[in-house]
Amino acid sequence: MFRSSILSLPIQKYGLKINQIQIGIWAYKPESSPGSRQIQLWHFILELLRKEEYHEVIAWQGDYGEFVIKDPDEVARLWGARKCKPQMNYDKLSRALRYYYNKRILHKTKGKRFTYKFNFNKLVLVNYPFIDMGSGRVPQSAPPITSGGSHFRFPPSTPSEVLSPSEDLRSPGVFSGVARRMARGSVSDCSDGTSTNSELEETVGGGGGGAPGDDRGLGGPDRSFRGLLPPRMTHESLFRMYGSGAHLARPTPRVHSEQLSPFPVSPLPGPGGHLGPALSPGLSMTPGSHLPYTPSPSMSSPMLGSHFSFNADDMKRYLQAHAQSVYNYHLSPRAFLHYPNILIPQPHRPPAHDKPPAHHLLHAPPPPPMHLSHSLAGSLGAGLDDQQHPSPFKFKLQPPPLGRKQRDGGCSSSSSAHGQSAASAGSGRWSEKRCLFTLVVPSPRHQVEPISDNESEEVEDDEDDEDVFKTPATPPLSAGLPPLPLLSLKSEPGQGSAPISPGGTLCIPLKLRFKRRWSEDQKMEADGEREEAEDKKVRRGGVEGLGVAPPTQRRSSSELQRATAQLSLENSGC
DNA sequence: CGCGGAAGTG
DNA sequence: CACTTCCGCG
């Protein structure tokens, strides 16, 4: 079970509680059927958006993260094909999209027909390759490559809303064969027999007409990223984020670097692992650099057991992995943003110069070591303690906080207290997406400082992009944020004054950052909770209500997100 | 067109 | 869980 299942599992988010800090992390969840991973709609949308061939039906347009479904019926058809739901139509698809509102993955752009907007603030897209943005130029609306990394924050107590996970990571080598096969269509036959699905797949297969490159495009450095970086992102940023990450941990030996993900790679059959690691610009997969990643038990079997422990290094790797996961889009909203350490101060810039355009980055070999790790490490270590000691952290799995389920009832365990119980609730199975881990770490030093400063910060961001529109704007720096998720840097509120420079240079003293971050976090969390709770009518079912984590913890808590790999267009056979 | 509840599915 | 299906409401 393990292996196969794990591999194929989708990533899920797990909550980690570290020293009282809770972090949500996505992990794979054991789906029942290995082979049949289902692609998620938003991933699918993202895929379509990145393929030129579909620009006629759906494309980035408008604000950051905004896209327009130019041909609803076609998109629905494609989606239906992908899911083998011949009956799919825009009405249904839109319902699904609306369903994302609650998760805050998407928003509707009011006033614009068929126009939705991704909440990249909440999503962590790591290395989402914006390839082929059609004309080669990327719309401002297109997301940055790796936004994700930046935003990871410790999650509030209420994780409930977390988004979902990711998708497929695929490991190239191993699975590629499969993928190919799948792509080919073996899988393709939908029950209905409609050939519809083929479209995407074909593409994937390389055939399609069009766009071939994208997927596998790895080889081609190219296009893939051209354009991607949002104006605001700079190389530096990227580097900061991922740049140095030369060493990614590779979880599984077999997997190449791509595996950023902490968890075992998922075997998704994707169309050849196209994106492979290579793609991610940011990430470099440095070939030699893999750290000897030892698959810590924890990592390897997160899903399996309920308890495991790992040390700081693991953690780092883990985090890195997350950050770097190839293509991953993820979600946790605010998480990365607030994560203090994620950004790295300039000093660290990797050797690579910052060049202006991202492209270079992309192509460029992976920069040497990234700071990411450091940062993470730092965060963990420093944050928690001072250094990155290898001290082993222990994590206890807790039941996911989630909560929103109304119906089944679920699981709700969010807060700290009940970890285990929750687990049990989960029936032992990792079905739940998030599991909380209790990290036992010494010295959590940081408490939160009550800083009232931030203004609204991100709060708005997610929620409302609308605000952005609506608001007169002056949003503090925050406004900028949304757009620049990548680095997370939203500018700092208040004092920071140093918003991110266009060049992406962010220069904020770490301390400040920290502080701010914390405060922000707190705030966010607070808001977040509120939002979550109230936001959309909280739908959580019963249990959860109570469960919210105590404020105390919450603040500290943050989520980690990770995302994953690529989406594959192919369908899992229907 | 868009929203969101409710029930159903795998 | 993540939709899918159906549907009433505005």
TrEMBL record:
The keyword Nucleus applies. Keywords: DNA-binding, Nucleus, Transcription, Transcription regulation. Residues 452-467 have a biased composition (Acidic residues). Residues 39-119 form the ETS domain. Residues 409-427, 476-489 have a biased composition (Low complexity). It is found in: Nucleus. Residues 143-170, 185-221, 271-298, 347-427, 446-503, 519-574 are annotated as: Disordered. Gene3D superfamilies: Winged helix-like DNA-binding domain superfamily/Winged helix DNA-binding domain. One of its GO terms (molecular function) is DNA-binding transcription factor activity, RNA polymerase II-specific. InterPro entries: Ets_dom (IPR000418), ETS_fam (IPR046328), WH-like_DNA-bd_sf (IPR036388), WH_DNA-bd_sf (IPR036390). It comes from the Eukaryota. PANTHER family: ETS, ETS DOMAIN-CONTAINING PROTEIN. Belongs to the ETS family. This is ETS domain-containing protein. It comes from Gadus morhua (Atlantic cod).
